[in-house]
Prior knowledge:
Blueprint: H1 2-6, H2 12-23, H3 27-40, H4 53-58, H5 63-81, H6 88-100, H7 102-111, H8 120-143, H9 151-184
Helix pairs in contact: 2-3, 5-6, 5-9, 7-8, 7-9, 8-9
Amino acid sequence: MREVEEKPCITVEELVNEVSRKVGVPREYVAYELMMLWKKGAVELEGYPMDNRIMYLLSIEGLWYWVTLGISLASVLAVLLIGNGPLMYIRYVLGALMTLFMPGYSLIETLYPRGDELKPLERLALSIGLSLAITPLIGLILNYTPWGIRLIPIMVSTTLATTALLTTAAIKKSNYYLSRRSRCFE
Length: 186
């Protein structure tokens, strides 16, 4: 534990080798003990440091971005391709997600990019509440345009707003992860 406190930005391999050499025990034992400390929450381990935004988006930390974009795309496809019939319930579920959750979620991700500022339940409640505020604002803006308040303009506007907010959030989150990397790996 002392080694981690002295060198907070050390890699797992370096830590295991150093402790194994100093204490004189096999590397496997040190690795096992480190894993147990991690499971207890005594040690925080991070993945491979990212060098740029593309690496962030392609890493496990960027998975949220692709999942939310996928849900947005699936909802657009459901609205365009699914009419009446047994599949209309998929359209209802995806439409409800796109209307009642996604705009607020993307705004929350933009405003709080680190992820530890809000608890998960607070994040969920704010996402739903802000979605209930953003979606009518989009409708109000559309009311004063030539397109009016119809299904396709609302779907396109909500999807564009959500995608813009998600992309902004991805940029802010990647900046955060890159700044953490530069702190340890200069």
